[in-house]
Specification:
Elements: H1 2-13, H2 27-33, E1 37-41, H3 46-55, E2 72-77, E3 80-86, H4 91-107, H5 109-112, E4 115-118, H6 130-143, H7 146-160, H8 167-178, H9 182-192
Parallel strand pairs: 1-3
Antiparallel strand pairs: 2-3, 2-4
Helix pairs in contact: 1-6, 4-6, 8-9
The protein binds zinc ion.
Length: 198
Amino acid sequence: MIADAVSDLRARVGLPVDPARRGPEPLDRFFTELSLSHVALPGLTLGGVVEHLRAEGVPIEDLGDPTAPLAGFLFAAGRIGIAFVRADDTLGRRRFTAAHELGHAVMHRAKMGRCHVDADIVEANDPTLEIEREANRFAVELLMPEAVLRARAEELKREFKVRACPRLVLAYRLASELLVSREAMRYRLKALGVGDDD
Ligand SMILES: [Zn+2]
């Protein structure tokens, strides 16, 4: 179901998974397709999000403790959709959060109401809450397509003329190509059984 949601979105944008294409997944294309914008706020908090939305002319009630720190936040109502990420996070982390919020926007709009609060987003683990697990898997599928990872593992073996392909080496290389964190990449490679145990 999650893989379907990701491939539907890819089809809409005309970007099927293509291991021959180098570089990171162009997240902005997916955002545009869904009429979502993304905003990076330093020290992302509930109060900061509410303040930003009000400044944009979105009438919104107080959502709780304004000082509460957030990992991410999605606002979606009518034609307005904004994913908030933490400006202080590393690029890989911000991209994971953005893709996670994209997952909520694609899969959970009916059940989430106007706002979805992410107090914590764990990149290298499977969250307990189903909705969070789904959003994480969406992000993982979108940012780190299995076919790309498998193709790069084979390339690495050919390049170094070795039979084994250490997962750590592969994770470093792929994390910098796809602009995700090394932790997220190692977790993904391990889950897929791509690369050899270090
Ligand atoms: Zn979430």
